[in-house]
Amino acid sequence: MRRVRVPLGERAYDVVVGHGALAELGGLLPRSAKRAAVVTQDGVPPVGELSLAHDVFTIGAGEQHKSLDTVGELCRAFARAGLTRNDVVIGVGGGMVTDVAGFAAASYHRGIPVVHVATTLLGMVDAAIGGKTGVNIPEGKNLVGAFWQPSGVVCDLDALASLPERELRCGYGEMAKYHFLTGDDLLAMSLTDRVARSVEIKAEVVASDEREGGRRALLNYGHTLAHALETATEHRLAHGEAVAIGLIYAAHLARELGRIDDARVDEHFRVVADEYQLATGLPAGLEPGRLVALMHRDKKALDGLTFVLDGPDGVEVVPGLPETPVLAALGRMA
User: Fold this and answer.
1) Any catalytic annotation for residue 110?
2) Average pLDDT over every residue of 191-206
């Protein structure tokens, strides 16, 4: 069992990682809470017995349910259940659940505590940690949301045994980015240590830039194209699958700009394709111009096309890129 601290002063919290970590849930709940609202989906492993009176609210599966309508329905349900500002929301599931439950908690009564129980690998290494919550609108992914830190996070690795292979691949896609954010040899670690180290990397970055004013954007490595791909495919391409493709694209773009050499591009292929067995090419039928237009809408795009790119000093945010190299790198993804 590993316990990682997200150091945010008075709002610091623990992420518990390991087999059987669900047993630690009770110790992460706020002492003031008398009731809990458990937000989950069909098929997600239950949290078992809770010491608090609680109601279970099941939301739909699929990105179409990651919406303002779902958040509104949850907030109305919280009101009918009599939740107060001292009570707690418990998000149990993957990244979609923790994003929606976190945004509902941030919105209801202008903010009530939330604790996440991540049941997917993607949720454990990314979505449940760091306080970014949000939903989709037709114009793009995660364009509406709030920063709302949880009171604690449980990553029980036992939940991974029941995951479909595609869900595991999605987690590997998100985990792959951490290989390029530090010099750590994550592949040499056990799964517990690899998840915990991913959490540590994210926690350190979040603590230095909680609201993504600068450095936290590094955690979006591979995500600029990934979010465009999700929107362009109407979410037929899952998030982690899109991130894997986005990582390869970011390597091609960095090479196009002379920031890295061919050997570093090959290293991206080694991690993404060889080690994690993830697809690296663009889905058929996508127009490059459409993808560029969607990338212009990315949340990082404050000064033209903006990407997180590898380079001689490591991964960094590169704003204001012209479309010519962006399109050229897309041409290498066939």
Assistant:
1) yes
2) 94
Query: Are 241 and 152 part of one and the same domain?
Result: no
| E strand or H helix at 15 | strand 13-18
Q: Determine contact, residues 91/41, Cβ cutoff 8 Å.
A: no
DSSP letter at 306 equals E
Which residues, in sequence order, are CB contacts of 225 under 8 Å at separation 6+? 242, 245, 246, 249, 250, 291, 295
**Residue 212 annotated in active site:** yes
What is the pTM for the complete model shown?
0.89
Catalytic residue among 216, 252, 268, 300: 216
Residue 239 annotated to the active site: yes
Whether residue 163 is found in the same domain as residue 311: no
Active-site annotation holds for 132: yes
- Does the residue 180 lie in any domain? no
Annotated catalytic residue 216: yes
4-60 pLDDT, tens per residue?
999 999 999 999 999 999 999 999 999 999 999 999 999 998 998 898 999 999 999
**141 in catalytic set:** no
Contact 153, 128 (CB under 8 A): yes
Residue 158 shares a structural domain with residue 258: no
Question: Catalytic one among 66, 141, 169, 212?
Answer: 212
β pairing state of 305-309 and 316-321: antiparallel
Q: Which of 298, 318, 312 is nearest to 214 (CA)?
A: 318
Annotation says 19 is catalytic: no
User: Is the Cα torsion angle 18, 196, 161, 95 positive or negative in sign?
Assistant: positive
Number of domains in the chain: 2
**Count of CB atoms situated within 10 Å of the CB of 292:** 16
Residue tagged active-site, from 66, 116, 223, 268: 223
Q: Which range of residues forms the domain containing residue 284?
A: 221-331
Q: Is residue 320 part of a domain?
A: yes
Coil, helix or strand for 217? Answer: helix
Assess whether 10 carries a catalytic annotation.
no
